[in-house]
Write the structure tokens for this entry.
Amino acid sequence: MTHPAPHSTPAPAPGPVPGSTPSLVTLGEAMAVVAATEPGPFAHGTPMRLGWAGAEATVAVGVSRLGHTAAWTGRVGDDAAGAMVLAGLRAEGVDVSGARTDPDAPTGLMLRERRTADRLRVSYYRAGLAGSRLAPADLDEARITGARILHVTGITPALSATARAAVEHAVRLAHGAGVTVSLDVNHRERLWSRTEAAEVLGRLLPYTDLLFAGPEEAALFVPGGEPEETARALTRLGPAEAVVKLGADGALAVTADGAHRQAAIPVTAVDPVGAGDAFVSGYLAARLDGSPVPERLRLAALCGAFAVSVPGDWEGIPRRTELGLLAAQDITR
């Protein structure tokens, strides 16, 4: 099948136009998810559930559930899967009036196989599909420059040249307008090499205010070392605030005020996919609250703990009224 150039402008997705600029604006890929609900290889008759996911979309859902306005921009196909993605985001209070339905490319797909009781195997079908066709022309520049935070990840610029251009354009717009730029490295080796990721994302660091990275992701830019040393090295590349996500060992943030540590909150892990994005959503929501760094880390850890304890990418992210369910287990050191 021959597709027109990715920079062609598809029709806006149906949905209400918001009355004001959302506090958080994010752009990226969202796709349908078919996930096995029981362990074992994919086979005829395997029990499955249908859903949707996307790193930036998950962050938007989390911020919305925690009481702030959020918007997601991206492309989905003009198909049932795309309609499901947009309806799901709207149901979570996320503004998708800036999203686009692409009539010439279908919505991407993720297959999640529970190969054993404690091992997931994930396959993506995204190359050349709607999400990868995001382009600078899809962006609402006024919305970006009017937001309080722009959040992007390292996934989107790895999808295509036009998606990369969209992320770079959005970051520069936001930075020029004094909007806080949040970047989660979120490196995916299946999409691009470490060398290419370091080169492309490295160009974004001078425009970034808040950087999230795991230890291996941080090593794209700085030599490996202790988490605090790593975070401090990252802040010397541009970001005023660097957060190193340490999984079961919690997280650490470094700002001009010093280093702050947060232990992981102990829960029974059911599904690790999406936990990092849930963590980011909690951190950004607390930043929008005006909370200091230790409270940002605490809320981030709570959101990550909720997420891993529920199947799905974003389904387990808590609402404000639910935070007390795990808050008693919070340990800050």
